[in-house]
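Lecture notes, structural biology module. Today: joint structure prediction for complexes of two components.
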Amino acid sequence: MEFPGIILDTSTIIQIQKPARNILYDMLIVGAGPAAMSAAVYAARKMINLAILTIDFGGLMNETTEIENYLGFQNINARDLVSRFEEHVKSFEIPANYGVPVKEIKKKDDFFSVFLEDGTVYSGRTVIFTTGERHRELRVPGGRDFVGKGISYCATCDAPLFRDKKVIIIGGGNSAFTTALDLIRVNAEIILVNLMKEWQADEILKQRVKKYEKIHFLDNHEIIRIEGKDKVESCIIKNRDTGEEKRIDIDAIFIEIGLLPNSAPVKNLVELNEEGEVIVDCLCRTSVRGLFSAGDVTSVPYKQIIISAGEGAKAALSAYDYLVRTSLI
Amino acid sequence: MGKISEKDRKQLKDIFKSLPQSVKIVMFTQEIECEHCRLTRELLQEVAELSEKILLEVHDFVKEADLAKTYNIDKIPAIILIGDGDYGIRFYGMPAGYEFTTFIQDIINVSQRDPKLPHDVLAVLSKVYKPVHIQVMISPT
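The predicted structure, tokenised, for the full assembly:
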């Protein structure tokens, strides 16, 4: 017989080594979105002993399709940009614990203990907390029952499932309009429903979406119930001015009503604002010495990839200065 | 011509550069080799040439029957990956096609002495108290 050949798919090979549990790291980076990856690159160049603790690489970037506002790239696929970030980080061979969420961070004396959901504990002199945000859930009857059965929080993932179907998008900001663009690509009939009277998205996005023929705009409306047997079949929608309710037959509902900060692991440790975001100063310092934070989880406004990347770099440099000033390295 | 292309050899050399600890590949074939045995042995020889950390040991399934029994090998070609000890990793047949990538990942995991499983999964697995026989069937295409 002939040799059938080999397929070497290096993209699936995991070379990263896990962090050691018996080492006190100079820096633990929690999360691996753009803020974390940028922090990792800056910290690694300082040759300090660091490790990354994350669920995934890329965070919410993995749920976006095209990115048109990251300097240097007029248009780049989000996953390609994540791969470039990841490749840059991996070139430093930083140990990483991947796939397990962080449960809690505690400080004792001059060092931090980071507790993972599976019981593992890592120790660090400093922590850069960059856990980002998660989608705000739609809390109406049926809102939880049909997640994955017609209710989606990720158009990049699910839009192709609804080619030529009738869908509702809830929300009025950039995420809702970007979701509309994903659904326009699959020729869906779209109803955009917004709680407010104004549409908050960028003008350029609004203009692009409004050109589509099969889209209807319902401002000042809210979904009050989602119905179906095994999957979403219809929903009850209410006009907030008149109180009038009507049923709309629908195949899917995409929810884009904002994001919530993933700050639970530090809620008993640092000061948070009313939105639950970690309060940081201009040096990415939190209310706890040695704990720095960057990216979407912080009180810094404008949740953008480029801002997160910049803040991550700043957090790493700030943490490094802290280590030097306090003679911890 | 080699079984691993020049491009793949270069990539593998890069990947193997960061192997922290040695890995021993134990292969069982026989004197009069079956086609699969010969092709597998030649492939493994090429892999082993790419890193000083990878050591290849080839044994005869018939002449060294006792050794084969020690490893619980009952068919050939058989591959065993050894780190600090025998972790029970066995490949039967040729790790060609997509399985080549899986095979390389296993070499990395053994070299790192890390199964890359979450601790809670490892905790559950540690409760397996009697031998469980699992065979995963794959095709090289």
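Point to remember: Residues 175 and 256 of chain A are 6 Å apart (CA to CA).
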